[in-house]
Design goal:
With 87 residues, the protein is an all-alpha fold. It has 3 helices and no strands. Helix 1 packs across helix 2. It is elongated.
Length: 87
């Protein structure tokens, strides 16, 4: 996923790091770039879990999605703040 979208993830990494240091200054850019990244991640999550969501593998699918997001959070700990507004 990251290799296939290297330019977008490099841009997000840069904005993510700036946002971590100054949320107010970089909030708009973080939300704009982060929205694209989150949409892409959700697409890959759906691809990863789509076949196993029904039937006997439903619980496995949920655990797999959690592990996938936890792995993303290791590289981008602020990802859960995409779309939030600080006032």
């Amino acid at each position: 996923m990251i290799e296939a979208n290297k330019e977008l993830f490099n841009k997000f990494r840069d904005v993510h790091d700036k946002y971590a240091n100054d949320e107010e200054k970089y909030q708009e850019e973080f939300n704009a770039v982060g929205g694209k990244v989150v949409d892409l991640i959700r697409d890959y999550e759906l691809r990863l879990t789509a076949k196993s969501e029904s039937g006997q593998f439903a619980k496995y699918s949920s655990n797999l999605a959690d592990k996938f997001w936890n792995r993303i959070r290791r590289d981008f700990p602020q990802i859960d703040f995409v779309g939030t507004k600080i006032e």
